[in-house]
Amino acid sequence: MRLATLLGTGAAVAVTAVTGAVATTPEVESDWYEQLRKPPYQPPRQVFPVVWPALYADVAVVSASTIDRLNAQGEHKKRAAYQAALLINLALNAGWSWLFFNRRRFGSSTLLSAALTASSADLTRRAVAAQGGRALPLVLYPLWCAFATVLCGHIAILNRRR
């Protein structure tokens, strides 16, 4: 994996993380969020600042490796398609934070989360197709997004009258 590629995917992921954090942090610390009804399987607040950076690092590293592998194989169209899929995925990721926390649109954010899950699964499929088992750590990303979709939908149901 080339350092320049890793710096590029790392920068894209960092922009996503910062954009999401700007929408999330003030709201998570507010009375509004505390008063939301949440399902019993809602992870403790301390889990999210551990899980998301690990997933973001995984996305950056596996994506850089995948992009370089596709480039080395002369698969320039597949490389460009992967890069486009990555950018769409990161936009969906950042968008969810704004829709849920900033706009407080639970139903819409559940639909966006489902789209993010599908996008994450597609990104993982592309990475595994390009580099096999070396991309398997990326499987954790769509799994977490699927869990988040269920959680978001359940929060939407529990708080539909708010």
From TrEMBL:
It is a multi-pass membrane protein. Residues 1-23 form the signal peptide. CDD domains: TSPO_MBR (cd15904). Keywords: Membrane, Signal, Transmembrane, Transmembrane helix. It is found in: Membrane. Its main location: membrane. InterPro entries: TspO/MBR-related_sf, TspO_MBR. This is TspO/MBR family protein. It comes from [Mycobacterium] crassicus.
